[in-house]
TrEMBL record:
Its main location: membrane. GO terms for cellular component: plasma membrane. The lineage of its organism: Bacteria, Pseudomonadati, Pseudomonadota, Alphaproteobacteria, Sphingomonadales. The chain crosses the membrane at residues 50-71, 83-106, 151-171, 183-210, 222-246, 299-323, 330-349, 355-379. This is Cation:dicarboxylase symporter family transporter.
Length: 410
């Protein structure tokens, strides 16, 4: 068992114990509920604030360094650039599928009521701005004010501008700029690790409030949520499988037979990186040339996650449905574009670690408050299984597509 999996299981245990304790108090000793909530709520809020503290610097640093890394890879040669182009097309299709399939599935099977009680009392739910106001606010007139206000979309746009500007500098000056940014990202991840070490206690406190306020209905919502996000990840997997057939020219049954061992290891490790040797073997069985395998697959496991925009949009859409947030089509498209951009910032890290960093910029576009994500962090280990195998399928699918393009250029 990896350290990440063990930590996720401890957090899940904290969630289940907290829910059980809260439901028990509400059912058996409701007169003690307020006094116990007065103890639990500050602990949960303190832990949540510590986690949110790292989001803005982490997102900004990862976005700039990720952009620079992808651009440097594209300069390395035609095959690398073509592989990145394939990744971008697959991510765009995944994001498009997310905003079409997600709302449709939620309309067919809406979330059970109850989880809105997870938001601490007094939290103000932001409303999505009108489209004209949203467009006018894309470029921050003062980046320091945007940082202080937590205006995530403005911060992401500034990060993109700074990242592209860094690419125009000389190699020495670019390295001098990126070195402290990379160090900032590493330091923020260390702090995130510290905060997640205390996750069982923080999640227990927050889950106790959920259980006491919402009762059994909150538990039913969590089960429904896991099923919804897992199904959305499976849609990404099916998309990648279809692309391997239509674009890569690999028959579906042959593709799955070759990929079976890699999928088994991915489920066991929750790491697409750990499956890399088996993905290399599967690609060889599918006729992918060695020169393509050696470049495209390592590039894929470090810069490409097809399930990232799909799964992150699924979480945000689910929370928006719980809170009955009314958003426009323009805001939905903007959220999908943000999800696509964020997929390049956190792809090489476990989803439990980057959960808030990935979701907050997307949710800000739709007016979803970050507090609602907390119970879902604790059960992330379950849909993360489908994130992993979806990414494994997509990585090998991209290799088969790149190989077909390589043969055409020979």
């Amino acid at each position: 068992m990896t350290a990440t999996t063990a930590a996720a299981l401890r957090t899940l245990a904290g969630l289940l114990l907290g829910l059980a304790a809260g439901v028990t108090v509400a059912a058996l000793i409701p007169e003690r509920g307020d006094s116990l909530l007065a103890l639990a709520d500050p602990i949960g809020t303190l832990w949540l604030n510590a986690l949110k503290l790292t989001v803005i610097p982490l997102v900004l640093a990862l976005l700039i360094s990720g952009l620079a890394s992808a651009a440097d890879t594209a300069r390395a040669g035609g095959l690398a650039a073509r592989s990145l182009g394939i990744f971008a097309v697959m991510l765009l299709l995944s994001a498009t599928l997310a905003i079409t399939a997600g709302p449709a599935l939620l309309a067919l099977s809406p979330p059970p009521p109850g989880l809105a009680a997870a938001i601490p009392p007094g939290t103000t739910l932001p409303s999505p701005p009108p489209l004209s106001q949203w467009v006018n606010g894309l470029i921050p007139p003062n980046i320091f004010k945007a940082l202080a206000d937590g205006s995530m979309l403005q911060i992401v746009i500034f990060g993109l501008a700074l990242g592209f500007a860094a690419l125009t500098l000389s190699p020495q000056r670019r390295a001098a700029l990126l070195a402290p940014i990379d160090a900032l990202a590493d330091a923020m991840l260390v702090i995130v690790g510290w905060v997640l070490w205390a996750a069982p206690l923080g999640v227990f406190a927050l889950a106790f409030g959920l259980g006491e306020r919402a009762g059994v209905a909150g538990v039913g919502t969590l089960v429904h949520y896991v099923g919804f996000v897992s199904l959305m990840c499976i849609l990404s997997l099916l998309l990648a499988w279809l692309l391997a057939w239509v674009w890569g020219g690999v028959p579906p049954l042959r593709f799955i037979r070759a990929l079976g061992p890699a999928l088994a290891v991915g489920l066991g490790t929750q790491s697409s990186l750990a499956t890399l040797p088996l993905m290399v073997k599967a690609s060889g069985e599918l006729g992918v040339p060695d020169r393509v395998t050696r470049l495209t697959l390592p590039l894929a496991v470090t810069t490409f996650r097809i399930t990232s925009p799909m799964a992150n949009m699924a979480v945000v859409l689910y929370c928006a449905a719980i809170l009955d947030i009314d958003y426009s089509t323009g805001a939905l498209i903007a959220a999908a574009a943000t999800a696509l951009l964020m997929s390049f910032t956190v792809v090489s890290l476990p989803s439990q670690i980057t959960f808030f960093a990935a979701l907050i910029p997307i949710g800000t576009v739709l007016g979803v408050p970050p507090e609602i994500y907390v119970p879902f962090l604790a059960v992330e280990i379950l849909p993360d299984l489908f994130r992993t195998i979806g990414n494994v399928v997509a990585d090998v699918s991209a290799a088969t597509i790149a190989a077909r393009g390589e043969r055409k250029t020979d």
